[in-house]
Design brief:
Helix content is about 50%, strand content about 15%. Helix 11 links the parallel strand 4 and strand 5. The protein is built from 16 helices and 7 strands. The radius of gyration is 20 Å and the shape is globular. The chain has a single domain, classed as Rossmann fold (3-Layer(aba) Sandwich), CATH 3.40.50.150. By secondary structure, it is of the alpha/beta class. It has a 7-stranded mixed β-sheet with strand order 3-2-1-4-5-7-6. Helix 1 packs antiparallel against helix 2 and helix 14 packs antiparallel against helix 16. The structure holds S-adenosylmethionine. S-adenosylmethionine binds next to helix 6, helix 9 and strand 2.
């Protein structure tokens, strides 16, 4: 079956997609270093040329449309509901952030870099006890934990996720008010929150959903409220091949260009007050190294194909940022008082 699927998928989706799927389907766990090298190395010009023209242009809207039929709930479950114990093997121990950390030097550990990121975002959120604070896509509760450390106020911290595993983890370890709900399609009570923030969740919002969601979030904030975001967006010369490959890892999710985000938020009424750009690559390499170091335990927790999917996901994402196809932004936006 595997030898047949490769040419078929190459023909429809192009060689990068087919190549990755072929690697993931390997019946054996992939060799880490050769996989990292294979995915991150510069490719011959002929390969790049094929990638630029494949899938064929007339097919692209159809292929994307088919992939975008994927329901948000099922798409999120496919990526996140693997096993909490599996994620614990490669994420930082203290918070379990599944988002880009702030590495400053070669000697930084993932723990140090995630602590630095948490402190950076804490400054942007600037939480005060008694303020109602909502995280869109709260994962395993990493940033909610950091805010709670600062304010000591658990009652006013809220989170939303579409992962049942994360809900179970939160109930067991954190006890924040985390709900299983879709932050894109839900209704929000007007003027309820002082702060709404998202870290690494906005990437799941499809381009046509940005403008209506920005307006909903604007209405959900109190006058003077803050919206803080950490997310990566696509740069304009994004290759279609990378969009299609991203469906292997995040079915049904589709990031959006930077400009579209700025426009949607400013049209909704927000004023951008701070903006910084960050480097995702060291975090991706750290997760990869942790997964490899825990390979035996990982293979007790998930099947070989799931292990291979993650082992390819980190170098694919590393290459994406290395090529400047995505840009990781943090910003603070204010709703005028
Ligand atoms: C990359 S994780 C980031 C988690 C966390 N913010 C962190 O920094 O570790 C993305 C999170 O967004 C959530 N998410 C994505 N799309 C969502 C949606 N439409 N509604 C609710 N949660 C969503 C996922 O369930 C997951 O918890």
């Amino acid at each position: 079956m595997r030898p047949l699927l490769f040419p078929l998928e190459s023909l429809i989706y192009g060689p990068p997609y087919a190549g990755l799927k072929n690697l993931i389907r390997s019946p054996e766990p992939l060799d880490p270093e050769s996989t990292w090298r294979l995915i991150t190395c510069d490719k011959p010009a002929a390969y790049e040329l094929v990638c630029n023209h494949w899938p064929l242009r007339p097919l692209r809207p159809l292929l994307l449309h088919a992939k975008m039929k994927q329901d948000h709930v099922l798409g999120i479950a496919e990526h996140y509901d693997v096993s909490n114990d599996f994620y614990e093997l490669f994420l930082d121990k203290k918070y379990m952030f599944y988002t880009c950390a702030d590495f400053e030097g070669e000697d930084d550990s993932l723990e140090t870099a995630q602590q630095r990121k948490a402190d950076f975002i804490l400054d942007l959120i600037d939480p005060k006890p008694g303020e109602k604070i909502l995280e869109l896509g709260c994962g395993w509760g990493a940033m909610l934990k950091r805010i709670y450390e600062q304010t000591g106020d658990k009652e006013n911290l809220y989170g939303l996720t579409l992962s049942k595993e994360q809900i179970a983890y939160n109930d067991q370890h954190n006890g924040f008010q985390v709900e299983f709900d879709d932050f894109i399609n839900r209704e929000y009570e007007p003027k309820k929150f002082d702060v709404i923030y998202s870290i690494g969740a906005w990437e799941h919002v499809r381009p046509h959903e940005i403008a209506p969601l920005s307006k909903k979030l604007y209405r959900a904030l109190k006058p003077g409220g803050r919206l803080v975001q950490h997310f990566f967006c696509r740069v304009p010369d994004h290759l279609f091949a990378t969009i299609i490959c991203s469906q292997i890892y995040f079915p049904g999710s589709l990031g959006s260009p930077y400009r579209a985000n700025v426009k949607a938020f400013e049209d909704a009424g927000f004023k951008i007050t701070q903006r910084t750009i960050h480097d995702y690559r060291p975090t991706l390499r750290a997760w990869f190294d942790n997964l490899v170091a825990n390979r035996e335990r990982a293979l007790e927790l998930v099947d070989v194909q799931t292990y291979n999917r993650y082992l390819t996901f980190f170098p694919v994402s590393w290459r994406y940022f290395e090529d400047g196809l995505g840009m990781l932004v943090r910003w603070v936006m204010k709703k005028p008082s």
